[in-house]
Design a protein that fits this description.
2 copies of one chain form a homodimer. By secondary structure, chain A is an all-alpha fold. Chain A has a domain of about 140 residues: Tetracycline Repressor, domain 2. Chain A contains 10 helices and no strands. The first copy, chain A, is elongated and about 60 Å long. The interface between A and B is large, with 49 and 50 residues.
Chain lengths: ~210, ~210
């Protein structure tokens, strides 16, 4: 998923004094951090590596962030917002049947992974997997992100149900929770195999679950 | 999953000279390594930490393993064997309907995670997620492990299909692949939430997929 290109620009004009582009430096650090964490996770990456890639001196980092932990929290927030925006873009107010919207989101995620040679996965999934070595403050933050994505996805599924695309007895919230639980496994496997196959297999199984039976 | 207790003992008698318990030291390193990797993954853990936990001097490590990479390969193999053995124990030759065997495996995995306070997940899932920073030699090895587990699971599902527990038109190999793709996501989420809920939600969805429809 092309985070670097798609992360929303910060609002407002850049500062007047071009020799001190504060917001730009901070934004550059966040963009670089998100890109690196989607590929390598948190534990394996030092601040030095991110600074080297972003070509930002170490002093600047501690001007914007108190610690690697504080930086990590900002990265989770940035990725969560970026992704919530992406889900809204696919799910809300588009003239496409609701289940087709979910298919489009999946195709877009697939294309995003392919664009990066299946090296980048999901920042939140990576950090969830690493939770054994992460600052404890990340745990609730990551859980809230999943809850948010599930809720947006449940909304799309509820629309599908209203449109008769999903049997009325199915629980859309539970289905959305199921989707995100397994989807992170599919992203993990796609990275491991450097192939879209796991995403396709998972999507096919998930849509079978929504169908009114054989 | 209680690797330390369940890893099979090496075959044969211990060496006669008790002052040089070579196999025991190697086995201790492997057991400790597997336990640590299921909790923390590969990148965040140094050999020093494993040696400290196992109370083995550094010189001994390099007597048994050429490098951290070689050690990692041995750990993947040890975990894969342990787990294949576990799957066989649940799936083969037990006087229980085939789908019930899969349920028992899931309950056992849940109990294993609970026993370790949901801190330990799956070594293969952890390493799959970390693949962006791992030695490239791990990639094929990890893929082969998934293929092996899927194949054993497909065998159990095929028995279920023969017994009429699964509709005849479903593809048991594809279902087994789907199961393992999503199951790793469920283990990840259970670790993040320190709760069995994700395992239950995933299992419920998966069994719904096997049912003959509403």
């Amino acid at each position: 998923m092309n985070h670097l290109a798609l992360l929303p620009r910060r609002r407002g004009r850049p500062p007047r004094d071009a020799s001190v582009p504060r917001q730009d430096t901070r934004e550059l650090l966040v963009r670089t951090g998100v890109a690196v964490l989607t590929e390598k996770g948190y534990s394996a990456v030092g601040i030095d590596e991110i600074l080297r890639i972003a070509q930002v001196p170490k002093g600047s980092f501690y001007h914007y962030f108190d610690s690697k932990e504080a930086f990590g929290q900002v990265l989770i927030d940035a990725y969560a917002s970026y992704f919530a925006h992406k889900l809204d873009r696919w799910f809300l107010g588009v003239p496409v049947p609701p289940l087709q919207r979910l298919r489009h989101f999946i195709e877009d995620a697939k294309a995003g992974m392919a664009r990066h040679g299946f090296r980048r996965g999901c920042l939140v999934g990576n950090l969830g997997q690493e939770m054994g070595t992460l600052p404890e403050s990340f745990r609730v933050q990551l859980q809230m992100v999943f809850r948010d994505w599930q809720s947006r996805t449940a909304g799309c599924l509820a629309e599908a149900q209203q449109a008769g695309e999903i049997p009325p007895q199915l629980d859309c919230s539970a289905l959305a929770q199921f989707f995100w639980i397994g989807w992170e496994g599919a992203v993990l496997r796609a990275k491991l195999e450097r192939s879209p196959e796991a995403l396709d297999v998972y999507a096919q199984g998930f849509f079978a679950l929504l169908s009114p039976g054989p």
